[in-house]
Amino acid sequence: MTALADELTKAGAIRTRPWAEAFANTPRHVFVPRWFQQETNDKGIAVWREHQGTASADDLAAVYRDQTLVTALDPATAEQVDETAWTGVATSSSTLPSLMAGMLEDLSVEDGHRVLEIGTGTGYNSALLCARLGERLVHSVDVDPALVQEAQHHLADTGYTPQLAPGDGTQGYPTSDTFDRIIATCSVPGIPRAWIEQSKPGTILVADVALGIEGGLVRLAVDEQQRARGHFTTTAGRFMAARQQARTYTTPQRPERAPEAETRPTTVTATDIRGNYPLRLLLALHLPGAELVYHIDDTTGAMAIQIQHADGSWARTPLVGENTGTVTYGGDAELWKQAEAAWRWWNDMGRPPQDRFGYAREADGSAHVWHIPDGTRWNLPTGV
Fold it and tell me: What is the number of other CB atoms lying within 10 angstroms of the CB of residue 348?
């Protein structure tokens, strides 16, 4: 525990003594007695291999590395393929400790603050909050009642009994309480009204906002008019999406893909997109309703980055090979032109990092992002 706290402090994720002490005194292995690591088995199938947190010295050491550990799989997609391996979709995890530390530091808690955590998960983050603030001030909600119950047991094993409740976290905590700080360890398309209603003037909110192609962590302050304003944080990371059902995700409905239209030269490549998080964030602002996926050619196996729109339009550029400076598209030609426009703007502005972009949720629920230095603004689709 102390070694992990020292590592996170040296990396700059932990910036203050109280959080260093919280990490040094909170046993992560208690909250991750079982976890899954993805691998390819001897039949060439991608599987989740089960590990026991204290089964061996190697497994215990893995729990205290700065890595995300998947802790639950969706029963609707999980299929056991051997004694310790399953296929399926991950639905819960113990978050990367450096990401947790950065978010907790960004939350700027002070003694006496009441905190609401959205997404209890394993309970490890709740335990860290208890270590810092005391159990009486920590509240947490999770959509999966089984996870809440398990987290309660783990927390009790470490001597903590915070206020946990099952429920849809996008609806806030199931009481009329208000909070000084709100932290969400799941992604949402917009800041829910319930979180604002359970805030006070001055409440700080740290959450992952999913904008389509990309998203990111925002740190917002709520004012007297129930407006939440702030910026994307230097702490970068993404979370699983908030779920309305306890154990599974809704399968997205995608339209039929438009037929291929043309291949032409392009100024922005797959390497540019993959290597620059702020650029992907900007692409999300230029192309609302689009998503970024990897495409594998059925004939050659060549991999490309593809932007696809809800109307069936798409555009892709190869990851490797002789044609990395080209784009192939189908449907609306403006799709990739918008990507090129975002690339030009980002370069013209000196390649600003993500914390140069502000985020605001107005009292009526509308939201926008702006470039802080010059005020360039992008209105966002209505969230939740």
Answer: 8
State the Cα angle at 147 between 144 and 151, rounded to 5°.
Answer: 140
Q: What is the pLDDT of residues 366-378, one digit of tens each?
A: 999 999 999 999 9
Looking at 233-310, list the stretches that DSSP marks H as alpha helix, in order from N- to C-terminal side: 270-275, 277-286
Matching residue, tokens 């070694």: 3
String of b and e for 299-319 (b: at least 16 CB within 10 Å)? eeeebbbbbbbeeebbbbbbb
CA nearest neighbour of 37 among 1, 73, 74, 79 = 73
**Whole-angstrom Cα distance, residue 384 to residue 366?**
10
Domains and CATH numbers, the chain: 32-94 (no CATH), 97-232 (3.40.50.150), 260-348 (3.30.160)
Name which of 314, 319, 259 is nearest 290 in CA terms: 314
Which pTM does this prediction carry?
A: 0.91
Which of 245, 211, 256, 239 shows the shortest CA–CA distance to 354?
211
- Beta strands across the sheet bearing 314-318: 260-265, 326-330, 314-318, 303-309, 290-296
- Minimal CA–CA distance to 179: which of 149, 208, 219, 222? 222
Give the pLDDT confidence of 241-256 residue by residue, as tens digits. Answer: 887 665 555 666 777 8
Half-sphere exposure (Cβ direction) of 25: Cα atoms closer than 13 Å: 14
The yes-or-no verdict on residue 127 having pLDDT over 90 is yes
Cα three-residue angle 326-328-331, rounded to 5 degrees: 145
CA distance 189 to 380: 10
